[in-house]
Structure formats: C-alpha cells, structure tokens
C-alpha cells in the first residue's frame, strides 16, 4: 500500500501546484492599509524573503531555447556570492562567460546609462519602506521624478507607499521577490522571482513594468538570456553611491556630497565632458541613505543636469501594453494582468483607485468582511504558502484514508 500511497501523493501534489490561477486573487488595486501584520496584499502569494516556488504555467510560457546551459552557482550563494580565483578563471576563460560578480564587473546588454549628455536618472532600490515616505516628500518638494526598483516582499508590506509613488508620477521597476543573486538561481527560479514581483506590483497599481534590475548587479550570460526571453529591459547604473554600506548619517551625508560633487566636476556643466548621461544607484531601504538622498537634488540642478526617470531618458515605455498577448517576451495574461483603463506609456496616472480592505489577520479565519475571490467565506487567504499546496495536503490526507 505504501508505494501506491506515495505515487498518488506525488501525483496529487504535482497536479495541484502546476497551474497559476488568477481567480484566486482580488482585482488590481486591492490592498490593505498598514498595520496588517506585514502582509498587506491579499492573495495566495509565496512566503516573503524566500525564493518563491516555480509556477509551471509561467515556465511553459517562456521560450528558454536560447538560454546557455550554464549551471547556476551553489544555492548557498543565493544571498551572497563569493568569488575565488578559480571561479574567475573558469567564468572568464575559453567559455567567454560575462559574469558581473566574479568577472571584473562585466555587463553585456544591460542599460547602464542615459544615452544623452546632460540627462541624469535617479534610481532607488530595495523598497518600498517606511523611509521611502520622506524620500517621496523630498522629491515632491523638489518637483523631481525618480525610478524605484521594488522588491516583491517589500511591496507585500507597504503597498500604500508603492501606490503613492506611482500616483505621484515616479517610475516603478522590478527588483525580484527575495533579493536573491540571480546567478545562484535556476532558470525557472529566475522566472518565478520576476513574475511574482510583477504580479504583486500589478495588483497594487494595475500595470506591469517593462524594467528590472539584478540584486547586487549579479548576472551572467545565462541570466541575461532568461531575462531576454521574458522580455524585460535590465537597468543597471554607471554611478554607485554605495550608500547601503554606511550607517552613520553624518558620514553618509559627507559621502553622498563628495560622490556627486566629484562626479559632476568630472562631467562638467550640463555633462558636456561626458560621453553619455548617467544613472545613479541609491537605496530607499535605509534611514541614513534616504536622509542623505536630497543632497544630490540641488547639486544636479546647479550642475545643469536634467533629472529624469529612466524610461524618459531612454524614450521607452515604462509599462507593458496589457492589450497585447505578447510584448516580445512573456504573455502578461499568464500572471492575470489585464488592461485597466491605462496606456502602456503612462507613468503619471494610477490605473485604479485602491480598494482598501481590512485584513486583521493574514491567516484563515480572518474578518468576515474580507471579500476575496477564491477564498472561503469569512476568511482571507493565507499568504505564507500557496493555496495549491494546502489543497494538495488535504487531498493527500483524503487519499491516505481511502487507501488505508
């Protein structure tokens, strides 16, 4: 009986977990105002800050035939790639792999700069966070627009801040679900990291970004090919403030001031000495970094630079056209993304007004007023694991009882 039970269990688990169902999610624009126990976006989302499980339907929708057959780094390096001389030699030897982390900061095909001299794109990674609020206030006071690369797990915590950033005209791009190093992920894990983040961003603001950024800048030819197959534009940078490495606010201010002053002096007025424009990297996840960020605003303006969103300096749409079945990559319909009174290039008007719901508890048995398609009456869906997985467990138990 045991082999039969094991076989049936595996079959049930496989059948129940392989297809993403958009009907299990509420309409775009639905999220909860914090506090909500750190999970403010309803739906069967994966666990936060962990590599999400792959969705078979998403993997099947992406043509991976042109992806090089390079093995990923050991999974132990997912949150911190370590490089050795041997690794450098093998990755940059006869194989010709262009590896950023272990290959002398090698990028190939990523967007690293604004093409026009005098343009400067301010970009901020790793939010949204509580500190993003003061950054948005400062940008608004300065009448400037920026680009935010958001982590899916952070969006789950503060969708209200993401919605505000989008509503105020800032550009939203993806920065994975768990902030894992891409070269330590399999192809299907990269797809899951990217599309789960795209899904939660869509649920909050009703659009799917065209742009993404590697955590740590970590990439190689394999990961680039996966992202090309997905159809996302990868944005990196050519000016790094290293603001994440400094916790002392006073030193942070001095460092930011020194960096931008040095960069602007070398570029000359309006960037006339430079061969292109610039994309700078900062972070809105750290208090000291956000407090120092506005220092750059006056420096850039006094230097004659045009501060723009990345999409503006590239003259490219910031969001996918959801009326099309394909955008040269994955079909947005596979994550349940449909057009909601929005145009592909719009980055100033939110697609929908948020429907705020009361999620007192992110587990089953929450308030009866919670109305989420696909959930049981009187309860919200659990967020820490897939509904499919829970269904599989229930079915396995039922099969076990029948067999025995």
UniProtKB/TrEMBL annotation:
Region forming the signal peptide: 1-17
Recorded superkingdom: Eukaryota
NodB homology domain location is 118-308
Q: Does the keyword Metal-binding apply?
A: yes
Q: Which Pfam families does the record associate with it?
A: Polysacc_deac_1
Q: Which UniProt keywords apply?
A: Hydrolase, Metal-binding, Signal
Question: Which GO terms label this protein's molecular function in UniProt?
Answer: chitin deacetylase activity; metal ion binding
One GO CC term of this entry?
Answer: membrane
One of the GO BP terms on file: carbohydrate metabolic process
Its protein name is NodB homology domain-containing protein
Q: Which source organism does the UniProt entry give? A: Synchytrium endobioticum
């Amino acid at each position: 009986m045991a082999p039969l039970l094991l076989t049936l269990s595996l079959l049930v688990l496989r059948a129940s977990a392989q297809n993403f169902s958009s009907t299990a999610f509420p309409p775009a624009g639905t999220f909860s105002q914090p506090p909500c126990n750190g999970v403010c976006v309803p739906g069967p989302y994966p666990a936060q800050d962990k590599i999400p499980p792959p969705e078979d339907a998403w993997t099947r929708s992406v043509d991976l035939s042109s992806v090089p057959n390079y093995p990923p780094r050991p999974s132990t390096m997912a949150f911190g790639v370590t490089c050795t001389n041997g690794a450098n030699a093998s990755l940059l030897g006869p194989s010709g792999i262009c590896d950023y982390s272990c290959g002398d900061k090698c990028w190939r095909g990523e967007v690293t700069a604004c093409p026009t001299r005098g343009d400067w794109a301010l970009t901020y990674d790793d939010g949204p966070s509580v500190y993003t609020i003061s950054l948005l206030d400062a940008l608004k006071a300065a009448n400037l627009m920026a680009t935010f690369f958001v982590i899916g797990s952070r969006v789950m915590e503060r969708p209200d801040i993401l919605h505000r950033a989008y509503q105020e005209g800032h550009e939203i791009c993806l920065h994975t679900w768990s902030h894992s190093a891409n070269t330590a992920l399999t192809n299907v894990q990269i797809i899951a990291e990217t599309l789960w983040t795209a899904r939660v961003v869509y649920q909050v603001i009703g659009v799917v970004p065209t742009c993404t950024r590697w955590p740590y800048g970590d990439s190689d030819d394999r990961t680039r090919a996966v992202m090309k197959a997905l159809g996302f534009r990868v944005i990196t940078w050519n000016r790094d403030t290293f603001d994440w490495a400094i916790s002392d606010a006073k030193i942070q201010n001095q460092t930011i001031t020194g960096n931008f002053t040095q960069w602007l002096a070398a570029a000359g007025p309006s960037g006339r000495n430079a061969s292109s424009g610039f994309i700078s990297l900062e972070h809105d996840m750290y208090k000291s970094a956000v407090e120092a960020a506005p220092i750059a605003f006056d420096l850039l303006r006094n230097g004659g630079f045009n501060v723009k969103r990345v999409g503006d300096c590239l003259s490219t749409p910031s969001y996918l056209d959801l009326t099309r079945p394909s955008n040269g990559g994955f079909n947005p319909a596979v994550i349940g993304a449909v057009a909601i009174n929005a145009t592909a290039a719009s980055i100033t008007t939110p697609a929908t007004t948020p429907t705020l719901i009361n999620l007192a508890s992110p587990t089953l048995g929450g308030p009866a007023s919670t109305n989420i398609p696909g959930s049981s009456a009187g309860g919200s869906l659990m967020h820490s694991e897939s509904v499919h997985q829970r269904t599989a467990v229930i079915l396995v138990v039922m099969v076990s009882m029948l067999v025995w």
